[in-house]
Amino acid sequence: MKKTVDVSIPLGPMxxxxxxxxxxxxxxxxxxxxxxxxELGYMKKGIERIMRGRPWQEVMFLAERVCGICxxxxxxxxxxxxxxxxxxxxxxxxxxxxxxxxxLDRMASHLIANFSYCYTIEHETLAMYLLNTRETVLDNLERxxxxxxxxxxxxxxGVRFDLLPExxxxxxADLVKVEDEMKRYVRIFETGPLIALRxxxxxxxxxxxxxxxxxxxxxxxxxxxxxxxxRLRHPTYRDLGFTQITRTEGDNFAxxxxxxxxxFQSIDLIRKCVETLPDGPIRGGGLCKAGExxxxxxxxxxxxxxxxxxxxxxxxxxxxxxxxxxMNIEACAHTMIRDVASIADxxxxxxxxxxxxxxxxx
Amino acid sequence: xxxxxxxxxxxxxxNILTSTKxxxxxxxxxxxxxxxNAKLRMVLIRRFDMSLLENLESRWEMGQRHADDGDxxxxxLGYELFTRFIPLVDTETMQTIYSDTTAMTQEIxxxxxxxxxKEQIREAVLS
Lengths: 362, 127
What we know:
The complex is a heterodimer.
Chain A lengths: L5 E6 L11 E7 L2 E8 L7 H5 L4 H8 L7 H16 L5 H29 L3 H22 L8 E2 L2 E2 L5 H27 L1 H7 L7 H6 L4 H5 L13 H5 L12 H24 L15 E9 L2 E9 L5 E7 L1 H13 L6 H10 L4 H5 L1
Antiparallel strand pairs in A: 1-2, 2-3, 4-5, 6-7, 7-8
Chain B lengths: L9 H8 L2 H14 L3 H11 L2 H5 L1 H11 L5 H6 L3 H5 L5 H17 L2 H17 L1
Helix pairs in contact in B: 2-3, 2-5, 8-9
């Protein structure tokens, strides 16, 4: 006779599917998960405290070390917050170059997120394909900024390097290749019957639940939350005619598909930027002053907010960083994972929300 | 849930709650509930896991924006705010408090009924 027992199953902190250490404590009835608690604290950096009292020139490098996957957007949001405080204008060419680099970073982040998901549901072939494509994206990031991960590309009033015509041509050629490959991978993902079994209808989160826990980024957009992309309010993205991608299914499949669709959107945005790249300087100059501002930008995982207070020398007196993973991981632990029918779905659902523990613990 | 190798998370939870933004949120919630910051911190550390504490500020912000639209009693008591957005009171207890307070508003002045309802919520939070 089949017997159902109630057990508590800890997953992590070290788990083959986790990229970073975190512990999920699942309370189950048989295989069904009733409740989940999340335990953090395995990689606390205390980076906000390290930043306090330091000049912006040092904090700029620390900011991009908050996260090793979306480092460019941390750099961008920190610099744009400093520009907001100090009323520093950015030349149009630099603003467009920022979008190019930010979108390359978003593509790299989405590709590694979807790689992790495919790896978790044991579709290693697709996972490795995605990781391979990510290399091409990182090569292009390196071509423009000189570095693959910690680029420190943006500075107050501009960017550090211009985009040379031959580099732009090489990047566009690479993007054609990436687009072709991605079309094939998305077809594999969309039509795979085993992928559908592990993804469709699993880890459901309704629109109301997404709003309640302030879910952001692709996780919110996969649950049909409109107006949840900060790029809609960014002046350069508005110039480029950016529109938000939204799906309504709210399951693992939708979250991965939103990221795939956003990779195509990023390719289009980069092409548009390169085609309409204005002439002119890439650095406008300006001095960082005393002030206080809260500024949000759209990271690959969602809304990233920096609240900064500076003194008259441009030193950071106080700083608070609200990363998107804080909201997404909480929503995942308390909403998506609750009531999943199998422990195997806990790992895939957790990974589908693209959790970044480094961001969460700062 | 307790394991033999369980760590004591109180200090780390306290660190989360005393960071700049979270401290502001805790003070605002404590003021709304009419209790001291220290007592609220104690309750939060006891009841919430680390991810919920990290997300406290966002949930509070969303609760202010979306919870309890329309019904004045529910709005004053924070019916949805303290059950769904910041889950400090379970739904059954809150429903009982809400029903009692709504009944009281027929007999005594509105403000007095709300004050009594809030007292019951404080008791439920601290229990």
